[in-house]
Amino acid sequence: MQASELAATSTDDADEARIPLWFKLAYSAFCAVLVPTYLVAYGPTNFLYFCDIALLTGLLAIWLENPLLASAPAVGILLPQALWAVDFLGAAAGVPLTGMTAYMFDAKLPLFTRSLSFFHFWLPFVLAWLVWRLGYDRRAFAVWTVASWVLLSVCYFLMPAPPAAIDNLPVNINYVFGPSDAAVQSFMPGPLWFVMLMVGLPAVIFYPTHRLLLRYAANDAAEAG
After folding, report:
1. N or C, which end of the chain is more exposed by having fewer CB within 10 Å?
2. With 0-12 CB in 10 A as exposed, 13-18 as middle and 19+ as buried, what is 57?
């Protein structure tokens, strides 16, 4: 094979790798630190949270360069994590909005562990970038919806309700018992709250995000053309 052909082959191989190797290694290194740290700090059930599932699915997406594995968690967490970021900034300014990031300011938790949780802030941007690099798979809405139903069912029927019996033990995972981790909500029957989540999350969060990403992908394709 001539030198020019070798150069062309190398260029083609580089083009096929849509996610840079340095990014794959950096993301993997972060996960390699976070997973054992969270296991010690919070226990394995912490990985039932949508955000943690999205983080680890993103890890698979960047190594497999799979559009569906990037698209599904993007559908699930772009809007909720945007709210997390707003709540964190508000809490840092002394004006918390929902209280969902209160743990980030809990001095009882090690600062290093809390700093790892800052992935909630940057993960939505990473997933949006992955969708831009890999393309959007329109099956993502259905895949994440079914996955969320499974997770919500596990958390509601098998995981503990608030308040926590042991410090740092995850309770009310994915808010299946109400908006607060301090106590079970009392403004409607528990099963009704659960059904509302099962229906409301796909309708109010997942589907609008799906439509947004479809338009985002279509605009990217038009610009590329």
Report:
1. C
2. buried
Per residue in 23-41, pLDDT (tens digit) is 999 999 999 999 999 999 9
> What pTM did the predictor assign?
0.88
Q: Among 177, 175, 170, 157, which Cα is nearest to 43's?
A: 170
